[in-house]
Amino acid sequence: MLEDPGAGAHGLPPGGGQLPPDRTQAILEATKHVAGLLKGAGHPFALAGSVAAYAHGVPANFQHDTDFAILREDARAVTEELERAGIQVRVPPEDWLIKARSHGEEIDLIFELARHPVTHELLDRAEILPVDSVRMPVLSPTDLLGSLLAAFSDHHCDFGAVLPIARTLREKIDWELLRRENEGAPMPEAFLFLLERLNVIDPPEGTS
After folding, report:
1. Residues 166-203: pLDDT tens digits?
2. Rg of the Cα atoms in the chain
3. How is domain 22-139 classified at the CATH fold level?
4. What DSSP letter does each residue of 74-116 carry, written as one string?
5. H-run or E-run covering 162
6. Which of 12, 42, 112, 143 is deepest in the core (most CB within 10 A)?
7. What is residue 206's predicted lDDT score, i.e. its pLDDT?
8. Domain map of the chain by residue range?
9. SS (H, E, C) 36-73
10. Secondary structure of residue 207 in the 3-state scheme
């Protein structure tokens, strides 16, 4: 986890204010709850986002929610399953996800990862990993980082949040595939160049 350069002495925010409450365990409990329901009902899914990175060994750095990739055609059945379990579900204005709430935490159930539809092939590539002792499908390292790169834009380009994930998972990622998929996209290409300059990854063959 990168340090906040604006933090004051002893890690307190500037001005001596209190740090926000640690929501890590609550987010993990919400993740396990929803994953258990999806598994029990037989709905294909894969954990995505920062909790997926944690499952792959990246130190916990949860911001505000947990993400699941699901098939668009399963949205209604997933909604009904969660509602039967007493979980509040709502449909936001965006047409690429539904939102739920468990253990006081937000759950995003996503049918498109950065404008790329969730497919059976994507979910089939998921790895079964333990998340706080509960095993569940998790996006593969290459698919996980690919979804984060595809989300970069002129309005959302937080390299600092993705850099620790790339560093930790670099040996498990197909970098050549990600280069091909992001060819011509300025922000992902800039991030890949940054990784080269930081010696996280090697430059493409034939370049210096």
Report:
1. 999 999 999 999 999 999 999 999 999 999 999 999 99
2. 18
3. Beta Polymerase; domain 2 (3.30.460)
4. GHHHHHHHHHHTT-EEE--SSSSEEEEEETTEEEEEESEETTE
5. helix 159-169
6. 143
7. 67
8. 22-139, 141-208
9. HHHHHHCCCEEEEHHHHHHHCCCCCCCCCEEEEEECHH
10. coil
